[in-house]
Amino acid sequence: MAHFSTPGAPRFSVEVYQNEYLPEGGREVNAIITVTSSGGGAAGGPPIPAPAAAPEAYDGVPGAYDGGGVPGGASARAAVVIMVDCSGSMDYPPTKMRHAREATAAAIDTVRDGVSFSVVAGTHKAVEVFPGNGRLAIADPLTRAQAKEALRSLSPGGGTAIGTWLLLADLLLGSADATIRHGILLTDGRNEHEEPQRLRAVLDACAGRFTCDARGVGTDWEVEEVTGIASALLGTADIVADPAGLSADFTRMMEAAMGKEIADVSLRLWTPKGAEVAYVKQVAPTVEDLTARRVEAGPRAGDYPTGSWGDESRDYHLCVRVPAAEVGQEMLAARISLVQPPPDGAGSPPSPLAQGLVRAVWTADLAVSTAMNPQVAHYTGQAELAQVIQQGMNARKSGDAEQATAKLGRAVQLATASGNEDTAKLLAKVVDVLDVAAGTVRLKAKVAEADEMTLETRSTKTVRVKK
Length: 467
Prior knowledge:
Elements: E1 2-3, E2 11-18, E3 21-23, E4 28-38, E5 57-58, E6 78-85, H1 95-110, E7 116-122, E8 126-130, E9 137-138, H2 141-150, H3 162-174, E10 180-187, H4 196-206, E11 211-217, H5 223-232, E12 237-240, H6 246-258, E13 262-270, E14 276-284, E15 288-289, E16 295-296, E17 301-309, E18 312-321, E19 330-340, E20 351-363, H7 366-369, H8 374-398, H9 401-418, H10 421-427, E21 431-435, E22 440-443, H11 449-457
Parallel strand pairs: 3-20, 6-7, 6-10, 10-11, 11-12
Antiparallel strand pairs: 1-20, 2-4, 4-18, 5-8, 7-8, 7-9, 13-17, 13-19, 14-15, 14-18, 16-17, 19-20, 21-22
Helix pairs in contact: 1-6, 3-4, 8-9, 9-10
């Protein structure tokens, strides 16, 4: 385990958990990589006043942004844009819009002094609510009060085109001299005024430019859309079934955003000649497959994005296929580094933050080579848990009761065995558990839509292995 740090920056560490022993001819090496960041300074900067301006509109068409261009951003280390759904469905019930305003106000109160911020109203177009003219305000008591006053203009009406909201957020965040760029997005409905491929193209364009947490309020939104946004932009996704819970949730999201201290961190994997990376997955606090996001980083090396970090710890599952070897041989199967782009841009090597090594040793002792490392076993089960929940819920929706019962029964078995109590409780709202150990369940005849959506949305949340 190696550490690298600079004054005022978080300290990263990498711990590797694996059984490095393989049988003769064995090729697959599995390891859990625990990455921990701690001790960084707060993001932000000195308060710089920014006057409010009238809202302007942006409809996502190049050249159609009429906010007078994007001036140079304020010099703050963190920037955040809050995107609030203001489509017509937010009027049903009428209290939903009120709760959204209150939640946005609570988030604004949580923005730290010196952080750049903006509020966007989203319908079939995106409108700047505060401060306007393509700028971000710098948080201080005055601008926070002005922003909350501007929320009075939020009213429901129009359609839903989430890609347009994200494009404006990207434009605003790109105007700030900030290292931490983050979005918070709230929606209550389906993305009906935009083709799915359009939203996907926007997410691809925004990936790596800012992170984004997404929330669905009520039960009329699509789980795959909201979780897809959070996944693409390395944020969190959740359901707020009761709009009255929005303020508490928005406060927690903004507190987490304000705790981020370092951005654009990548997990760099180097493998020797003849070896190949089978997959890389984040497995805690949620399951997220990063394999397809690899960016080549030199001979036999690739970078996998991890987003922004505060004081936190995450676990990753690495699987590498190495050339077969004879008993007694050993090799370095992979070298893991945490890297960050240099502040001066292209031309300098990335800053190393921490390193770890994954080994392979061939042995004739079958008892040693077949033993599964506890961390690897735990997270293999957690990844399977997320998968069988999704498969079971999809089968339930399609009317395949036999498949749904089998998959959700396996999910109950895995959740209980791994100590994932929260997921076990969510499963119990969808199935009657007859035998936990055997995974025997019966589908409930009636399930509240909110319970069904909560299970789907939170299916990828994991618990840490008990050390």
